[in-house]
Write a structure and sequence with these properties.
- The chain has 529 residues and is an alpha/beta fold.
- It folds into 2 domains: 253 residues, no CATH class; 228 residues, Nitrilase/N-carbamoyl-D-aminoacid amidohydrolase.
- 43% of the residues lie in helices and 15% in strands.
- The protein has 15 helices and 14 strands.
- The chain has a 6-stranded mixed β-sheet. It has a 6-stranded mixed β-sheet with strand order 7-8-10-11-12-13, covered by helices on one side.
- The protein is elongated, with a radius of gyration of 25 Å.
Length: 529
């Protein structure tokens, strides 16, 4: 192992960049749907050894001394994000004649931008780089800080955060209830990087023992949480999730809209199979209604006629406020509640919008360049002043998280009022049969654990699922399946989600790692003197 470490440390130029890129790209195999966790115990030790050899020239300024480490981390991140996010380009091929030119932006420029965060992680780690164990803790802290920043800067995009690799099953997801995704990120990188100590002599046993202890705590805490008695049930709701697998290319085709609506109505009205109860609540995916719902009373009438007395529907839809003809309308990507009378009884709007998808940053500038939004809609979407809950009966209130809102830790804490279930409506048909929908589902599972509430996920082409508050999938429809999922879900007591608590705890974990790394770095320098 020492000989291998030495060879990696001595790599230089394009060979160093290629090794970093390959190590990062290989690390994606630890994410869904592959879940090959062991690869991280190779990728991150290689990164450590590459950083061991990325010293700046003595006597240079701080930034110039950190540059080799930053560049190594950037190449690692570039490989990771190219291999992990290539499927985003699939969305640009739905309307290829309009958006195919932007493929390089999705599969090269976006990964290159996200890789800056991993370059920053390596540079931060280098500040507290110490002999052996200190550098491992420093790398964990660096990635913890970088992943936290990736989740909040420029509207955030924490997709495929490293911590998800350490949480492939519910047993290993429970740590996120205490320290959140960002805390798991930091500790996971520290554990994944520990085998790098096998390439040296100092702290080898200490580091490997620390890694074993963290893994045992991670799994032990999960076992303990899963063995706790179930929370008190306030009520039960019988629900039906409809998954029609509508082709994204046909979704806004005028000739297809009636057929699409009829498909939803037919699947929703079918009799339950076996002993399943008649659903109290029917759930359709994101923008399921292929019309501007506030402008089409006949669509509401058709939905009301399909629903039986006492039933209600939650559906994703585009709604408007103001006068579309006068150019003063505002458009929202929403979840609306519709009663059996065919009336909209409530609505909640998406507040975390997708840049370049649902709105165009610096719209005047990009419009002059001929760049437009990817999502077809009557106009640019607006965000509401605050996130609203939606009532689902006498004892239930749902927190709607639309599409990728479910990937943001702490997002649930922004809801006004208490809730006892999370409804995630999405349309992953943009991405076809790629790793994207599986990764999206995994992140929804971890959010259920962090929020501490069950998640009901309705996806146009899948993966629709019912997830309990511990991240366990109770039932699901496979990717690209057509049908409905009937399930009775237990509702816990209403409460205000506390997602920000885990974020604060994560920052404490990251700070502790950084402090320990700094102390070991100081001790190493004192020994050298």
């Amino acid at each position: 192992m020492e000989r291998l470490a030495g060879r990696v440390i001595l790599l230089w130029g394009w060979r160093r960049a290629a090794a970093a890129f390959a190590a990062g790209a290989a690390g994606v195999l630890a994410q869904a749907p592959y879940d090959f966790l062991a690869i991280c115990f190779i990728s991150f030790p290689v990164l450590v050894w590459l950083l061991d050899g990325s010293n700046g020239e003595p006597g240079q300024g701080l930034l110039r001394r950190l540059w080799p480490s930053f560049a190594t981390g950037w190449w690692f991140g570039f490989g990771y994000f190219v291999a992990g996010l290539w499927w985003i380009g699939q969305a640009l091929l739905v309307e290829a004649e309009t958006h195919a030119w932007a493929l390089p932006l999705a599969i090269v420029v976006l990964p290159a931008g996200l890789a800056l965060f991993y370059g920053l992680a390596a540079a931060i780690a280098r500040l507290a780089w110490a002999d052996d164990l200190g550098r491992i803790l420093a790398l964990g802290a660096g990635f913890g800080i970088a992943e936290w920043l990736r989740g909040i800067l420029f509207t955030g995009f924490p997709w495929n955060a490293i911590g998800y690799a350490a949480m492939p099953v519910p047993l290993l997801m429970q740590s996120s209830a205490a320290i959140g995704l960002y805390g798991v990120n930091a500790l996971a990188v520290a554990v994944f990087a520990m085998p790098a100590l096998a390439g040296g002599n100092r702290y080898r046993r200490t580091g490997l023992a620390l890694a074993a202890m963290l893994v045992a705590l991670h799994a032990g805490f999960g076992w303990w949480r899963l063995s706790l008695p179930e929370t008190r049930v306030e009520d039960e709701v019988s629900l039906r999730i409809v998954q029609p697998s509508i082709d994204q290319g046909a979704k806004w085709d005028d000739a297809e809209r009636i057929r699409i609506l009829d498909t939803y109505l037919d699947l929703s009205a079918r009799l339950p199979e076996g002993d399943a109860k008649r659903p109290d609540l029917v759930i359709w995916p994101e923008t399921a209604v292929p019309y501007l719902i506030t402008e089409r009373p006949e669509v509401l009438s058709a939905i009301g006629a399909m629903l039986q007395e006492g039933q209600s529907l939650l559906t994703g839809a585009v709604r408007s406020e103001g006068d579309p003809s006068g150019g003063s309308a505002r458009y929202y990507n929403s979840v609306v509640a519709i009663s059996s009378d065919g009336e909209i009884t409530n609505a909640a709007d998406k507040s975390h919008l997708v840049p370049f998808g649902e709105y165009l940053p610096l719209e005047a500038f990009f419009s002059r360049l001929g760049i437009s939004r990817i999502v077809t809609a009557p106009g640019t979407f607006s965000a509401p002043a605050e996130r609203e809950a939606i009532s689902i009966g006498k004892t239930g209130a749902a927190l709607p998280l639309i599409c990728y809102e479910i990937i943001f830790p702490g997002e649930a804490a922004n809801v006004a009022g208490p809730v006892n279930i999370v409804v995630n409506v999405t349309n992953d048909a943009w991405y076809g049969d790629t790793p994207g929908p599986y990764q999206h589902l995994r992140q929804a599972q971890v959010r259920a654990v962090e929020i501490g509430l069950p998640v009901v996920r309705a996806a146009n082409n899948g993966i629709s699922a019912v997830i309990d508050a511990h991240g366990r999938i109770e039932d699901a429809l496979a990717l690209n399946a057509v049908g409905n999922l009937d399930h009775t879900i237990s509702l816990p007591a209403l409460r205000k989600p506390s997602g920000r608590t885990q974020v604060r705890n994560a920052l404490v974990v990251i700070s502790a790692l950084l402090l320990a790394a700094a102390l070991l770095s100081i001790a190493a320098r004192l020994r050298a003197d």
